[in-house]
Amino acid sequence: MPDQRVRHAVQHPAVGSGRVAAQVSLALAWLVMLGVTALWVSGGGIQEAGSSATGFFTSLGRLTGLLASAALLIQLVMMSRVPWLEQAWGQDELARGHRLVGLTSFTGMLVHIVLITIGYAAAQPAQVWSTAVDLTLNYPGMLLAVAGTVALCLVVFTSIRAARRRLRYESWHLIHLYGYLGAGLVLPHQLWSGQDFLTSPVATVFWWGLWALTAALFLVFRVVVPLWRSCRASLRVLAVYPDGPGIVSVVVGGRGVRQLRARGGQFFQWRFLDGPGWTRANPFSLSAAPRPDSMRFTAAVVGDGTARLATLRPGTKVLIEGPYGRMHPGARTRRDTLLIGAGVGITPLRALLEALPHDGGAVTIVQRARSEPEAVLASEINQLARSRGAQHYLLLGHRIPGRDSWQPASHAAWSDVDALRALCPDIAERDVFVCGPGAWTDAVLRALRRAGVPAAQVHCERFEI
Q1: 434: nearest Cα among 345, 309, 302, 355
Q2: pLDDT of residue 15 exceeding 50
Q3: Are 419 and 409 in contact (CB under 8 A)?
Q4: Backbone angles phi, psi at 244, to 5 degrees
Q5: Are residues 38 and 160 located together in one domain of the fold?
Q6: What is the C-alpha separation between 465 and 461, in angstroms, rounded?
Q7: Segments forming the whole domain that contains residue 312
Q8: pLDDT at residue number 103
């Protein structure tokens, strides 16, 4: 029989402040775009657009280029791992927003190139090619801008899902770094020949300020802070051991672990100073609640980066970025909790289960795996569940063929929503934490919406590049 106790919303300051931070950051992004448009208007953009066909294409080309530049800077800020942004949105939402804003910026950049070229060709199609060559060779910073555009095109094309699936994570990650190079190469063209950067002191301060702020945030939170934390924590590998077929667990420790203030369910970007490949960071979630002097993560061996984990030796120095993610107890808005994960995506939920306060709140954990040997950390999860009075359901088997479902084939008679309600009858009154492969996670999220779970109570991370 379902538990009939009255459930109370748990007040978490981090949740309320996170929502405010999300609203403030979104408002700031729109203010930047409005500011860009206002500067274009004040610089005579509307008058120029109405003056002639040439003015129309040139002026609109300037506007699309400016908006594309601003969107590119917003995109970089989203991935600069600013703590208050990351806590407000979570890495999953930031990554999705990053892709959307990036596609918008890239499209605007292409439109800018086409419109400007047509405008400079005096709106005569026959002169478009010669004008494009002239602009590239004779205008300040244009060769660098072309190189930057090529770099951004490479990033966008390899980020298409079909292309990403054909690339190793390490290759995709290396190519993706060209996005920063592309942004840097575009800057001289804008500063040297961009009319809207030079029309007034206000415009100059606005654009220089945006670029300087973006660069500062990136350097501080992607370089300086991680190095400082790594040096302060002085982390080293303590132990490495297999945890199932193709699964390896790594324990790291150091004098400054406590000062990292990591919480069960969060993740770090890890670098191991064991030789070639140490410069590449890989994201791994904690699979156990942090101890005062050690942390553990568990990963599936799926590529070169993860294959190296099994060969790590105790004593290897470790560099970290983090902790990141909102898969932790502080993200809760309700007293009761449902944890649902698949494959290696169960690892942060196992840590979260351990870290949840023993405040009397009901906890249910649903684990999906193709077979019992592939059920990552299942025995640990079962012991933890018993010790704290939680319910642990292990659902085994391949997904239902011909149906976009999160369930195993043995449950084909159940709809996704009915299965969730059978496992957790009061699901709409709980916080739900979801972690797993992208398509599987999407199926769970659809079922949660249909089951009436408010979006504010759903916290998810996808395990995909």
Answers
A1: 345
A2: no
A3: no
A4: 135, 175
A5: yes
A6: 12
A7: 234-324
A8: 85
171 lies in the same domain as 241: no
* Assigned domain for 58 exists: yes
Q: How far apart are CA 266 and CA 290, in angstroms?
A: 10
Instruction: Quote the tokens at residue 119.
Output: 């405008």
Tens of pLDDT along 367-388? 999 999 999 999 999 999 999 8
Residue 189: other Cβ atoms inside 10 A: 21
Cα–Cα distance, 301 to 187 (Å, whole number): 40
Q: For the residues of 368-436, what is the DSSP string, one character each?
A: EESSGGGSTTHHHHHHHHHHHT-EEEEEESPBPTTS--SSBGGGTTS-HHHHHHHH-TTGGGSEEEEEE
Count of the separate structural domains present in the chain: 3
Residue 251 and residue 264: Cα distance in Å, rounded?
A: 14
Q: Say whether both 198 and 241 belong to one domain.
A: no
Q: What share of the chain is helix, strand, coil (3-state, %, to 5)?
A: 60, 15, 25
Write down the residue that tokens 């084909």 correspond to. 412
HSE of 406 in the Cβ direction (CA atoms, 13 Å)? 27
| pLDDT tens string 389-444 | 999 999 999 989 889 999 999 999 999 999 999 999 999 999 999 999 888 999 99
Residue 15 CB partners (closer than 8 Å, separation 6+): 330, 331, 332, 333
DSSP code of 220? I
Phi, psi angles (nearest 5°) of residue 126: -65, -20
Burial 123-139 (b: 16+ CB within 10 A, else e): beeeeeeebbeebeeee
What's the CATH number where 319 sits? 2.40.30.10
Same domain for 60 and 197? yes
